[in-house]
Amino acid sequence: MKYDVIIIGSGIGGLECGYILSKKGYRVCILEQHAQIGGCLQTFRRGKSVFDTGFHYVGGLDEGQPLHRLFDYFDLLDLPWKKLDEDAFAEVIMENRPFFLASGHERFADTLAKDFPRQRKQLETYTGFLKKIGDGIFESFIADFANSSLFESSAYLFLQKTIDDPLLRNILSGGSLTMELDSRKLPLYVFAQINDSFIRSTWRLKGNGSMIADRLAGHIRAMDGEIITNAKVTRLIETDNRISAVEYNGEEQVSGTYVISDIHPAQTLALIPESRHIRRSYRRRISAIPNSFGIFTAHLQLKESVLPYLNRNVFIYRDNNIWDHKCSREISSVLVNYKAPRDGIYTDVVDILAPMHWEEVAQWENTLIGKRGAGYETFKRQKAESCISLASEKIPGLKNYIEKIYTSTPLTYRDYTGAQNGSAYGIQKDCNDTLGTIIVPQTQIPNLFLSGQNLNLHGILGVSMTSFFTCAKIVGMNNLLKDFNGNIR
Ligand SMILES: Cc1cc2nc3c(=O)[nH]c(=O)nc-3n(C[C@H](O)[C@H](O)[C@H](O)COP(=O)(O)OP(=O)(O)OC[C@H]3O[C@@H](n4cnc5c(N)ncnc54)[C@H](O)[C@@H]3O)c2cc1C
Description:
By secondary structure, the protein is of the alpha/beta class. It has 17 helices and 19 strands. Helix 1 (12-23) packs parallel to helix 16 (459-475) and helix 3 (105-115) packs antiparallel against helix 4 (120-135).
């Protein structure tokens, strides 16, 4: 079967590329290795509850804000979005005290200035800087890539220079469990763009992340695109320096004029091991780049009508050492996420997320889902207990509210999304090595392109931007921008 574009992977990046190109009249075919589409947007059901895996909230969805413009284009605005409390979209508990992060740059600074009156000016400098970066987010569309020099600046040094008070620095970093706080590597661009989007406004879905995937997939199919599930891409067949066909499940083939890979660049290159056009140095560089840490999640199914829904995220830290997360038996930091109820005041699901490095689960790397053995079950149970104990600082008696506990580790993510070493956010960007860690969509094979969280920024906002950068390589950015509602500049 011949298509215009074959897309490997149905994560949000693959689906968005499929949507953009379908809108432009290209016939696309998305190949997904799993039965369920969506990658990190996958959900699972147990009894009456549906659990999210790699999606909990987004930032910048109010009118005029960056994600609003993107989701307007993708027709995702009328999903049941719920804005988190403006006076505290997040609560950071540190030194056993709560500190509140409020929506809007001024209110954010004002709220923290109540706890840190002497740091008011510095807080205003901080929010002013983030706002400037967020206001300029679409400039990267004109440049065709977010190649801002801020990728070369360190987030950690920026905080050191801007804010005197070490506790306040930690609080400002405390809502950033959604990125790896590596003091030597984390680029200022990643830190500023993501935090700015949450300060503008933070949202959950009254429902699950799969709604995003289903909406995009529905549109793609309606525009004559195809999505084939249970189709693991096993080889890219190269003829005369072009990918002439894509093999899946070791036997079937489809072909397209262009191929976009939404999976890790190293895994993409492994699908063409013999290519003479991919330089060995490029292969070596891509496979040597470290990936971000993974996430452990304790998914708690709660008894009926016991815990009122809390319309904010809660980040709890056992100590002040929040940068450079180390493995330890005890969980030292968690994000507590309440699932927004469809109606009523009680939540049925609380997810507790904690950073987890691959080394902690590496001993079970050769095992399969559901057959990893008693040692792994004990490991997960202890981690879940440690998460619940830390979360109980916010929800006293939490243990008594729990009906059932389900868990996921970096191994789970590896097996359900193909993420390298179960990494949560893909290639770890390094401000000291931007050339080495910022990957561009174009590969050395002219009709093969990359997309997804491993390029540029991770997360829903970052991946959505990258989908445009990738598709622009095929149809041209000016051509794409014509379809945007309003002026992108
Ligand atoms: C625990 C966790 C929580 C998160 N929470 C948030 C959040 O609240 N907000 C936010 O903005 N971001 C969040 N993120 C990050 C966000 O989910 C990701 O950045 C984003 O969804 C990645 O999308 P993607 O398309 O790049 O890749 P993925 O979602 O990883 O999709 C890749 C797809 O490719 C498929 N695939 C892999 N190999 C093959 C193959 N050989 N053949 C066919 N298909 C293949 C996979 O099965 C998968 O479906 C979270 C991530 C994690 C892990």
